[in-house]
Design a protein that fits this description.
homodimer; alpha/beta; Aldehyde Dehydrogenase, Chain A, domain 1; 7-stranded parallel β-sheet
C-alpha cells in the first residue's frame, strides 16, 4: 500500500483514541483557534489559492463553475471561519445515553453515543469542504483523512497547516487531521482499501467520483448528493400555491441537489395549472422539456425523451409530464428518482398520507418546495452532505451522523444460565 | 451478470413496493402460515435435509460441527416455526414517527421508520438461517435474496418452497423471498455487485466468508460475528464474583461469538484471584495459555504467543495475561479485540466509568458475563446476528436494524427565500 496513505492512516488511527476522549470544552477551543487562525492568515491562504487558480488557468480546459468552486476570497474564508464557530456552539453529541432499560435478571442496558473513529473524505476542488469536514469530524470526536483533488492542492495544504498548528496549540494530536498530498489516483484507490484503519469513507463530488468510490471501496461508504427531485401537483392542489412552489423549487438555485428537476401534473389540474406555470417558468429563463400533453399548453415546450425523466439537470431546465393518477406519479418517482427530495402539492388528506408513505426518498414533502432539504434548515446545525442511501443515515448529515452507538451494560455479578 | 441473480434481484425489487405497504396484520398472518406449513411438512423437509447430509457424508471431508449445523430434526424445525410466531408477536417497527419539530418558517419535520428495501444474505450451511432471516426481513417490510451454501441446497430449496407457498396463500408476492440456487462462487460474486437492486448485504459465517464479502461487495455490508471477547479483572474486583463470571463466560457455551477468549488480570489481584480461577477453569476442561506471570500460578499453564492475544478460539481454550494497570488492559482490548463484547469486573466507581467510556466495542459490561450480548437477552426479540461495525447498527441486530428512516415534512405552501 502507498506509503503516504499508510502513514496518515496510522496517524489518524493513533490520534482517534485521544480525540474520542477529548472534552467538549477543548474540542470547541480548538475549533475556535482554527477559526481565528484562518482570519489571521488570509494572505497566505489566498496566495496558495492563487497558485491553484493560476495552474488551472494554464490548462485552458475548465468550466467557469469549476473555477468558481475552487476560488477563495476574504469573505469566503471568513465564512468558513464562522462556520467553525457555529459548529463549536452546537451541542456535543457524544456520551449521551437517552435511557436505560432493566432486564429480568437485573442487568441495566442502554445505548451511549460514541465517535465513529477514523473518517476519510474524497472530494473535488472545493477548499471550503476541507474546513467544514474538519470542523464536523473533530467536534464528533473523530479523526480525519482528507483526499482533495490535485487542482486544490496548494489551498488544501495551506488550510490543513492552519488546522494542524491550531491542534498543536491546544495540545491535541496533529494526526487528528491529515491531508493525502499525493493526488495520483493510486493513492485514492489505496485509501478506499484501507479498511484496517478507516471506519467510514465519504465521497463528495459528482456522480463519477461517487460511483468510483462505491465500486472500489472496501471501507463502508455513505453516498451523497445525487438529486433528481420531483414535485407532483395533485388534482386537488391549490393552483397559485403550486405555481409559486414550482417556480421556487426550479429557479431559486438550480445548481444544487435539492432543486426541482421533473414536474408531474395530474391530468385534471393540467388545464388550469399548466397555462399558468409554464409561462412563469419560461419568463425566468427555464427551458421546458415536456410530454406531448404538456406541449399542448405552450409552443415553447421541447419534446422530452425517456432520458429526461432520469436526468439531474442542475440547470434552468425542467422536465414536465402529465399523469393519469397519483399512483402513476408515485411509480414514476420511485422508478426515476434518486431518493433525495420529493414533494406532493395537494389539498387531499388521503393523498397526502399515501404519498408520504409510498414515496421512497430521504425527504418527502407535502405542500412545500423541495429546496428545504438541508441540515441547517432542518435544524441540525451544520451538515456534511445529504445522504441518499438507506443505511446509517439518510438525508442531511449533521453531527449525529458522524457518531455511532455502543451498548453499555451495568451488572452486579450476572452469569448466563 | 449471472441470469439467475439478475432475475431474482428484479423479482425482489418489484416485490419490495408491495411488502413495504403490507399491513402488519397480513405480514403476521404470512409468518404464521409459514410456521404452520413448516410443522405440516416435517417429512419433506427432513428428506431434503437427508439428501444434503448424505451428499456431505459421501465427501468424507467435513467436521462434526459442520454436520451438526447442517442437520435438521423434528425439534429443530418446530423451533424454527416457533421463532416465526415470536417474530409475528413483535411490534411492527414501520411507520413509527417518534416526534415532529416545527421550524421558524412553519414547516413541521419528523422522521418516519421505513423498510430498507431488498436485503441479501450470503450464509453457510445452516438451514435455520433461511427461516430466521425470512421472518425478520419480511416483518420489517423488506424482501430477501438468500444465497446459501451448496451443502444445504436441498434443505434450502424445500424451506423456500414452503415460504413461497405461504406467501401465495396470503396473496403476497412470491418474489419477496428468493433463493439463488446456483451455488457457484460466480453467482455470489455477482450478487455482491448488484448494487442497482440490493440495499444491504449481510454475510453470516466464518471470517473468510465475511472478508470475501467486504472485499468484493459494492452493496453496503453489515459485518457480523467475530468475537475476540475480554474480561478485565480489576484490582478492586470481588474475587468470588470474578471466578464465577470468568468460568461462566468461558465454558457455558464456548463455540459462540460472545464467549470469553482472553482474561486480563490486574497484577495486584493476581495472587488472590489466579490461584482460584485457574483450577476452576482447568477442572472444566479449559486449556490455559498464559503470560509468564500467569504461569507462575499453575504448572498446567501453557505459554501464550503473541498470536494468542488476537485469536478467537471458539473452543475450551483461554488466553490469560497479567496487566500492570487498567490503562494497559484498555489498550490491549482496543488493539486486539474485535469490537464485540468486553467486560470489566471492579468495585471502583472511577474505573467502571473509564472502562465504559474508553473501550471501543459493541457491548461494554460492568460486573457481568460477556455471554449476554444477544438480541433476545437485550430485549430486542429475535436477532439477525451481531454487528461488529460502527455504521447503521452495532451489536445485536433486531427488527429495527432492518429498517431505515425518512424525513417527512408537512408544509402549507412554504418556498425558500
Amino acid at each position: 500500500m502507498h506509503p503516504e496513505v499508510v502513514d496518515k492512516c496510522k496517524q489518524a488511527s493513533q490520534a482517534s483514541t485521544e480525540m474520542a476522549a477529548c472534552s467538549t470544552t477543548l474540542k470547541n477551543k480548538a475549533l475556535e483557534t482554527i477559526a481565528r487562525s484562518l482570519k489571521n492568515n488570509l494572505k497566505p491562504i489566498l496566495e496558495a489559492n492563487k497558485a491553484d487558480l493560476e495552474l488551472l488557468e494554464s490548462k485552458n480546459n475548465y468550466s467557469r463553475a469549476f473555477f468558481d468552486r475552487l476560488q477563495l476570497n476574504e469573505q469566503r474564508i471568513i465564512d468558513m471561519a464562522e462556520g467553525l464557530v457555529e459548529i463549536a456552539a452546537l451541542e456535543d453529541p457524544l456520551g449521551k445515553v437517552t435511557g436505560m432499560w432493566k432486564r429480568p435478571n437485573g442487568l441495566e442496558i442502554g445505548l451511549m453515543r460514541v465517535p465513529i473513529g477514523v473518517i476519510g473524505i474524497i472530494y473535488e476542488a472545493r477548499p471550503n469542504v476541507t474546513i467544514d469536514a474538519a470542523g464536523l469530524v473533530l467536534k464528533a470526536g473523530n479523526t480525519l483523512i482528507l483526499r482533495g483533488s490535485s487542482e486544490a492542492l496548494h489551498s488544501n495544504k495551506a488550510l490543513v497547516r492552519i488546522i494542524q498548528q491550531s491542534l498543536l496549540e491546544n495540545n491535541l494530536p496533529v494526526g487528528a487531521v491529515n491531508l493525502i498530498e499525493d493526488t495520483d489516483r493510486s493513492a485514492a484507490l489505496d485509501l478506499m482499501k484501507a479498511s484496517d484503519y478507516l471506519d467510514l469513507l465519504i465521497p463528495r463530488g459528482g456522480p463519477s467520483l461517487i460511483k468510483s468510490v462505491i465500486d472500489n471501496s472496501s471501507v463502508p461508504v455513505i453516498q451523497t448528493g445525487a438529486g433528481n427531485c420531483h414535485i407532483y401537483v395533485d388534482h386537488s392542489a391549490d393552483v397559485d400555491m403550486a405555481v409559486n412552489i414550482t417556480v421556487n423549487a426550479k429557479v431559486q438555485r438550480p445548481g444544487v441537489c435539492n432543486a426541482l428537476e421533473t414536474l408531474l401534473v395530474h391530468r385534471d389540474l393540467a388545464p388550469s395549472f399548466l397555462p399558468k406555470v409554464l409561462p412563469a417558468l419560461i419568463k425566468q429563463g427555464v427551458e421546458i422539456r415536456g410530454c406531448p400533453k404538456t406541449a399542448a399548453y405552450s409552443s415553447e415546450v421541447k419534446p422530452a425523451s425517456e432520458k429526461d425523466w432520469e436526468t439531474e439537470y442542475l440547470d434552468l431546465i425542467l422536465a414536465v409530464k402529465v399523469m393519469e393518477s397519483m399512483d402513476e406519479a408515485i411509480e414514476h418517482i420511485n422508478k426515476n428518482g434518486t431518493g433525495h427530495s420529493e414533494s406532493i402539492l395537494t389539498e387531499s388528506y388521503d393523498h397526502s398520507r399515501e404519498f408520504l408513505k409510498r414515496v421512497d426518498a430521504a425527504a418527502v414533502y407535502i405542500n412545500a418546495s423541495t429546496r428545504f432539504t438541508d441540515g441547517a434548515v432542518f435544524g441540525l446545525g451544520a451538515e456534511m452532505g445529504i445522504s441518499t442511501q438507506k443505511l446509517h443515515v439518510r438525508g442531511p448529515m449533521g453531527l449525529e451522523a458522524l457518531t455511532s452507538l455502543k451498548y453499555i451494560i451495568y451488572g452486579s455479578g450476572q452469569i448466563r444460565e
